[in-house]
TrEMBL record:
SUPFAM superfamilies named among the record's database cross-references: Actin-like ATPase domain, Winged helix' DNA-binding domain
Stored Pfam families: HTH_24 (PF13412), ROK (PF00480)
Originating organism: Kineosporia corallincola
Similarity section: Belongs to the ROK (NagC/XylR) family.
Record PROSITE patterns: ROK
Protein name (record): ROK family transcriptional regulator
InterPro entries: ArsR-like_HTH (IPR011991), ATPase_NBD (IPR043129), ROK (IPR000600), ROK_cs (IPR049874), WH-like_DNA-bd_sf (IPR036388), WH_DNA-bd_sf (IPR036390)
Amino acid sequence: MQKRPRRTPRTATRRQILDLIRTRAPISRVELAEITGLTPAAITHAVRSLLDEGLVEESGLRERTGGKPRVMLTISPRARCAVGVQLGADWIVVVITDARGAVVGRVRARGARQHEPAAVVSTVAAHVDTLLRATAIGPDQLIGVGLAVPGTIDLEAGAIRASRTLPRWGGHPVRDALSRALGLPVVMDTDATAAAVGEYWSGRTAAASAHCTLYMGAGIGAGFILAGAVHRGAGGNPGPLGRLHLHRSGRDPGPALEDLAAPHAVAGRARAALAAGRASAITLTDDGDPFRDFGMVASAAVHGDPLALELVGESAHYLADAVVTVADLLDIDSLALAGPSFSTAGSLYVAVLENRLHSDLYAAGSQGMTVTLAAHIADAAAVGAAALAFHEDPGAGPLARPVRAPTSAAASSPMGA
């Protein structure tokens, strides 16, 4: 792959301005100054830099306020593109998105559970090259690569520390390995955090003060955007909900949330119920693939099968136990469900979580709580990973903390309206 041309280093101000234009376009320079509190000169300098780089363009619209018409700014969608990679035990997803977050190319392949990291990295790199050729996107258009991974991570080393679903990947420097394979800089984060960033980048959480994206693939995690800033905690690993023990009995911690609510747990209970003679339309796989079995259960639940509805409802209530706790601790006002496990029966999970949050949340009486499916349910981490590349120079450190716009009539409408 050809080497990318050198570009002007990004500043915190440019990141703030780019985020606001991305989520609130069309927007004027005057509005940007009002929202950020920056001087007109600082806004002009940042906007000019973005215009020169081709990331932003003047839309041709004018806002008349009684004085001189204001020129409105918007994102230039195809001037820059980014690659997003979602590494999962059961599925690997590679996408290319434009600067407005639209997916212009996508590849979905079987996951990394059974394969060595080096072989998987080579396969991912081949998928990226295939997508770039198919979409005719050149190196000069690429702003970088984002990588979303399961488990706990070492952000500095660019490695997965530990993952229950990808045990072979512990300590493997996947970020640098993928960067070498592609000849491009790569930024890495957890799949849940990437999915949360993707929701923020889409503008769907602009009205939220405290947003959580609940991500369920083979495992369960959560990503947080608090006051417009990504929350990474002390070590870059917030929200490992799958490891929570919520049903303790004496000194026995009991099963973790993933052992109760994740796809493998639902599939296991379905197999046991059918073996015990329960009547159901569920058809499980011959090889016992838990993720495919879960898909069968989810599909049967959507079609009204009583056993499947029972199993999905049980999983959703276990998730709700954890989410209510997290929402109370962080005073969450927005929740999105993301990940391949929500792609079929996500609406059933939304209904249970919405009811439980509205009935059990301690602060429910003082403010509203929105519960939605993510914009890109199954591919949310891949699309969010691409958004990471737009937010920061890959490998340069933590995600930018963009300024949150003050609440307005437009911004305060329910998410998804």
